[in-house]
Sequence to fold (180 residues):
Amino acid sequence: MFTIFVARNMTVQQFLNHVSNDPFYLLLYLGLLPFTALLFLLLAKNEGTKTPWKYAYSVLIYLSCIPGIFAIIFLVYRFVFENQQILNVEIYTQLLPILSMALTIFFIRKNVDLTYIPGFGKLSGLLMMILATFTLMWIFNKTNLLAITFIPIQYILIIFVVLFIAIKVGFDRVVAKKSK
Fold:
């Protein structure tokens, strides 16, 4: 029987191992999200922009995007900083949340434009900000003083300006107020 518990000294890796050892509830959760989006597609055909449905879609997107974005961040981190091989990717905790998020968003987009969904711009801005920060961290990790001396300074400045603009645009999307 799967019991969710967080021990006092449990690490994220131990929690992910615990979930992947007994994946029933994880599979149920990740399977219900696209199924619910498909059910909403059938029930609310062409009514996705109306008030009850757009908030239901918003909840569904958040329920699927939070584990999906976490899985994307975790995968990028493991590939970029830990040099993990693609064949060592865990299916339950690293691939299925991304697949569930993609299917959920796919079914929702069939019925409604995502710009009408409250909070969706904040999620995409958050993802853009996180990926720009990871790119910046990767550059800092891979470059050393010797490599920087061989790269012309104007290219380094252009790279950092573009990354900071991407971080700023992502941050603005996260904290922007609804302007309608």
Notes: The radius of gyration is 20 Å.
